[in-house]
């Protein structure tokens, strides 16, 4: 980043200062920037510069933009940045394959969900990011992924035991909490994941404040920045105490340390990937449990699939479910669960409210004759394809028996396509299958509304909630009974 002459030495001093100093200075700068720039933009396109809507009512806002402009591509101003919104098959193709479109740069400004702390959640050098991605690939090789199976199942058993024999819960809290735990287990250390208080604090960090805009330091944003520092300290303490003890453990932290990575890579790996991973996986798990609670036919089909897997791979019929499920090899989880695969695919299509974000790092490009200048931000809402009635009739209807969309190119982008595909797919799918399998065999359940009654129809995913598609709190609960099988 170029620094203005004269400010160069101050910038260098800032960058070489400790985290706490950077953090405090960053907050003060944030406040000043907001005071100076908080009047609405008057530049071209400002009639669409509804910052609040972009962060709080994104689905409605983007649809409104397409409607009022009558175009399949429109632009608006977000503070002083040009943001271009794309739709349609050829634009989708160009978006996912344009070489100059950069995910990290786009995410930094447009995400609005994560506090950006230089060197921790932003500003990581490309080299560090690619090391983090390489380590993520290493965690998902056959041997380490197989070793995670009993650990994920044991976490799930422990948490599901606490539900008791019967009751109700909000899946967007409870199921998310479960996935958060299994994600922390998979991506950090045994010391952190065994400590419920630390895990709860990590969860607080990744559950975003109500964000007006990423640079708007509302009180909750500032609290979250402090939380980021706390979490940073937690991870660094875990590294230091592991180093000091000299005792090696069999977990992801050990793999990172044995690879000789510096602290920033390890902290970036744990914090960044928990954010990237737990949210999308937690959202999917919460909706999957909800959909299965309203579609008993699919619940029974999925249960049968799991019973068949157990019959094939586990001899110890008297052992607990989690122990028996742990006997099923990774290969079977990955290639012998067609029902579960179609459930996941449909859940992602209907209830993953992702908007892909990029910055054009150059050169200028044209998409459908529309100029995307170098430096502009570009977004592609997944709703454009996943909720398109021409591709998926009655798009909000959950129907895992749908055939893959073959009428259009890139008719399904649930795990990303082109230059950017999800690098955590194997882990995410495994976590989803293991946790759902234990719930399927250990519980019978259905959806109830606020009053405890069975609703006439399931709540629809709310795409304006950019994180979880969460329906109004309280409108959807899971009412469950334990089966007779020991977890
Ligand atoms: C159900 C769970 C998940 C879903 C649906 C999902 C989906 C996606 C999608 C659609 C993208 C591409 C985004 C874009 O094009 O803008 C992506 C990227 C990514 N995902 Fe996932 N993801 C999930 C879980 C995870 C997990 C558990 C991890 C890590 C442990 C992870 C790590 C990543 C990373 C690092 C990228 C960025 C790749 C890059 O920069 O090239 N994801 N994910």
From TrEMBL:
<feature type="binding site" description="axial binding residue">
    <location>
        <position position="422"/>
    </location>
    <ligand>
        <name>heme</name>
    </ligand>
</feature>
<keyword id="KW-0408">Iron</keyword>
<feature type="transmembrane region" description="Helical">
    <location>
        <begin position="12"/>
        <end position="36"/>
    </location>
</feature>
<protein>
    <submittedName>
        <fullName>Cytochrome P450</fullName>
    </submittedName>
</protein>
<dbReference type="GO" id="GO:0016705">
    <property type="term" value="F:oxidoreductase activity, acting on paired donors, with incorporation or reduction of molecular oxygen"/>
</dbReference>
<keyword id="KW-0503">Monooxygenase</keyword>
<comment type="similarity">
    <text>Belongs to the cytochrome P450 family.</text>
</comment>
<dbReference type="InterPro" id="IPR002403">
    <property type="entry name" value="Cyt_P450_E_grp-IV"/>
</dbReference>
<keyword id="KW-0812">Transmembrane</keyword>
<dbReference type="InterPro" id="IPR001128">
    <property type="entry name" value="Cyt_P450"/>
</dbReference>
<dbReference type="InterPro" id="IPR036396">
    <property type="entry name" value="Cyt_P450_sf"/>
</dbReference>
<dbReference type="GO" id="GO:0004497">
    <property type="term" value="F:monooxygenase activity"/>
</dbReference>
<dbReference type="Pfam" id="PF00067">
    <property type="entry name" value="p450"/>
</dbReference>
<dbReference type="GO" id="GO:0020037">
    <property type="term" value="F:heme binding"/>
</dbReference>
<dbReference type="GO" id="GO:0016125">
    <property type="term" value="P:sterol metabolic process"/>
</dbReference>
<keyword id="KW-0479">Metal-binding</keyword>
<keyword id="KW-0472">Membrane</keyword>
<keyword id="KW-1133">Transmembrane helix</keyword>
<keyword id="KW-0560">Oxidoreductase</keyword>
<keyword id="KW-0349">Heme</keyword>
<dbReference type="InterPro" id="IPR017972">
    <property type="entry name" value="Cyt_P450_CS"/>
</dbReference>
<feature type="transmembrane region" description="Helical">
    <location>
        <begin position="264"/>
        <end position="289"/>
    </location>
</feature>
<dbReference type="GO" id="GO:0005506">
    <property type="term" value="F:iron ion binding"/>
</dbReference>
């Amino acid at each position: 980043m170029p620094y203005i002459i004269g400010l160069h030495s101050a910038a260098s001093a800032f960058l070489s200062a400790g985290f706490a100093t950077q953090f405090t200075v960053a907050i003060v700068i944030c406040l000043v920037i907001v005071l100076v720039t908080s009047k609405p933009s008057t530049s071209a396109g400002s009639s669409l510069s509804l910052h609040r809507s972009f962060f709080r009512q994104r689905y409605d806002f983007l649809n409104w933009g397409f409607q009022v402009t009558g175009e399949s591509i429109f632009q608006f101003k977000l503070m002083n940045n040009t943001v271009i919104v794309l739709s349609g098959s050829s634009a989708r193709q160009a978006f996912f394959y344009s070489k100059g479109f950069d995910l990290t740069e786009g995410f930094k400004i447009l995400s609005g969900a994560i506090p950006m702390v230089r060197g921790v959640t932003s500003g990581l050098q490309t080299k560090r990011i690619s090391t983090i991605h390489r380590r993520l690939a290493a965690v998902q090789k056959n041997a380490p992924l197989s070793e995670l199976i009993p650990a994920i199942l044991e976490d799930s058993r422990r948490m599901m035991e606490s539900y008791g024999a019967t009751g109700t819960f909000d899946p967007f809290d409870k199921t998310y909490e479960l996935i958060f735990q299994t994600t922390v287990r998979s991506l950090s250390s045994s010391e952190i994941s065994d400590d419920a208080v630390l895990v709860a604090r990590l969860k607080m960090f990744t559950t975003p404040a109500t964000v007006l805009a990423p640079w708007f330091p509302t009180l909750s944003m500032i609290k979250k920045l402090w939380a980021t520092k706390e979490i940073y300290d937690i991870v660094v303490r875990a590294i230091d105490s592991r180093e000091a003890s000299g005792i090696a453990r069999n977990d992801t932290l050990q793999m990172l340390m044995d690879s000789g990575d510096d602290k920033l890579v390890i902290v970036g790996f744990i914090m960044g990937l928990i954010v990237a991973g737990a949210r999308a996986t937690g959202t999917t798990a919460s909706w999957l449990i909800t959909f299965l609670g309203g579609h008993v036919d699919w619940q029974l089909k999925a249960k049968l699939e799991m019973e068949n897997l157990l019959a094939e791979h586990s001899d110890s019929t008297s052992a607990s479910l989690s122990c028996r499920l742990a006997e099923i090899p990774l290969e079977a989880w990955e290639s012998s669960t067609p029902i579960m695969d179609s459930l996941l695919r449909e859940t992602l299509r209907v209830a993953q409210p992702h908007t892909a974000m990029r910055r054009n790092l150059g050169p200028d490009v044209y998409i459908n004759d529309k100029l995307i200048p170098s430096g502009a931000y570009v977004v592609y809402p997944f709703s454009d394809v996943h909720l398109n009635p021409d591709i998926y009739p009655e798009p909000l209807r959950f129907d895992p028996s749908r055939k893959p969309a073959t009428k259009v190119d890139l008719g399904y982008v649930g795990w990303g396509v082109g230059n950017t595909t999800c690098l955590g797919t194997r882990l995410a799918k495994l976590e989803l299958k293991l946790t759902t399998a234990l719930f399927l065999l250990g519980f019978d359940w259905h959806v109830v509304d606020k009053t405890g009654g069975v609703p006439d129809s399931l709540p629809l995913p709310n795409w304006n909630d950019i994180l979880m598609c969460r329906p109004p709190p309280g409108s959807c609960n899971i009412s469950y009974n334990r089966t007779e099988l020991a977890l």
